[in-house]
Amino acid sequence: MVIISGGALLIAAILILSVTTKKNAVASRTQQVEQELIELRVIVDEVNDLRDLKETLDQKMSVVDRLIIGRLCYARFLNRVAHILSDDQEIARRAWIVSLAFNQVRTMEERRVEKKNRKGEITTEIQRVPVVKLAVDLVGVVGGDTGATHLVGTLMESFGTDPIMSEYIENVELVYIRDAQSRILTLGKEFKLNLFLKKRDSTGA
Question: For residues 18 and 34, what is the distance between their CA atoms, to the nearest angstrom?
Answer without folding.
Answer: 24
